[in-house]
Design a protein that fits this description.
With 142 residues, the protein is α+β, with helices and mostly antiparallel strands. The protein has a single domain (7-134), classed as Beta-Lactamase (2-Layer Sandwich). The protein is built from 5 helices and 5 strands. The protein has helices spanning 7-10, 33-41, 50-61, 68-74, 77-85; strands at 13-20, 25-30, 91-99, 102-116, 119-134. Strands 2-1-5-4-3 form a 5-stranded antiparallel beta sheet. α3 runs antiparallel to α4 (68-74). The radius of gyration is 16 Å and the shape is globular. The termini are far apart.
Amino acid sequence: MMEYNSKQEQNKYYKVVLVRIETDEYIILKGPEEEKLLAGILQDDYNSTRYEKMIQLLAEEVVMKEYRKMFSSIFSMENIQKEFEEGKNVIEYSYVRNVGDENSVVNTKVYPRTKQGDSLKEFMVYVLLEPGMQAEGNKRAV
């Protein structure tokens, strides 16, 4: 019998999201219930996508104030599309956010999932809790 002990199994993903650009879907595959509820009630709006709205909500509600501007900039749809079109394979940023009742350092990585030519169709977002990293003024950007 083969033993399964991958590094992925050791990592504790706090949140995993699939974003489909053309159909404007923001699907939380794993994550806190309150964020799943928020994603489900985001209304259609011609001015902004569900993804952009969710990024704005997260920045305002769970990301520590000093990280909000950079968080919003790095994870904007415009920036993600630009970075992947320019050949980047991953977008990564560590910041402090509310996790349960405390502030913790998380590392977020965004990977392209489906591309058609140069055009990005889907991407995945992985939010990983950094072990033992409670934050008070603990700033760390990648």
